[in-house]
Amino acid sequence: MTAPSIARLIDVMAMLRDPVAGCPWDREQDFASIAPYTVEEAYEVADAIVKNDPSALRDELGDLLFQVVYHARLAEERGWFDFERVAAGIVGKMIRRHPHVFGDADARDAAAQTSAWEADKARERSLRALPGVLDGIATTIPALLRAKKLTARAARVGFDWPDAEAVLDKLDEEIAELRVELPGGDADRIEDELGDLFFVMVNLARKLGVDGEAALARANAKFERRFRGVEAALAAQGRTPDQAGLDEMEGLWRTVKAAE
């Protein structure tokens, strides 16, 4: 039942790219112009999951699948590969990386599978002439995620702080270095020191076993919830935040926080 739908989707994509009868917009696109939409669709899938919305999730997964088909079509037009080879490639990779499921290897728990997965990825990098510890980490992924991946890779070969306490000491050092540049310091130096501070925070999250992205998302949600509470309190008085002073909004913020 699935195969005909996939085949139809591939046909639809080919029609959209047809030089004569296709869509003018779709014909003009290339890998670079489509890539931002691919990233956006992945985020929309994640958003549907967070909202626990099955209908939205189904739709967003379809949009993300279309992005895969789109890139595969662009590659096929260049004679590189087609959708079938993309699908066959991931099937082979999943079977190879799960010998405890598809082969005769011993059963693994989640931790053992994670370790084996990383080892297999390291072997693949070596076969692609990417022997460096940090090779193969995409430069286009969000900076927070890339920092986590870079430091986790380095930690696997022993380049790491011994514990979270040592990272906290480094955090104090970086804060002090940032303070030196303030106020009125060189903008480039401030950006550099602030970047160091963020980088150490990523390491602190890793050493504490906390997902930095999830922690920041939680802080975002907390701020949004509380600020909306401040807005609601002011709205009850017929006012908006720009009509209130900082001290008043701080007081309302503390009230909303205490109510939680």
From TrEMBL:
- Please give the Gene Ontology molecular function terms for this protein: nucleoside triphosphate diphosphatase activity
The record, for Pfam families, names: MazG
Q: What class of enzyme is it?
A: hydrolase
Positions of the NTP pyrophosphohydrolase MazG-like domain: 29-102, 165-226
Q: Do you know which Gene3D superfamilies this protein is assigned to?
A: MazG-like
Q: What is its EC number?
A: 3.6.1.9
InterPro entries, alphabetically?
MazG-like_dom, NTP-PPase_MazG-like_C, NTP-PPase_MazG-like_N, NTP_PyrPHydrolase_MazG
Q: Which UniProt keywords apply?
A: Hydrolase
Give the protein name, as stated in the record.
Nucleoside triphosphate pyrophosphohydrolase
From the broadest rank down, the organism's phylogenetic lineage runs: Bacteria, Pseudomonadati, Pseudomonadota, Alphaproteobacteria, Acetobacterales
Q: Which gene encodes it?
A: mazG
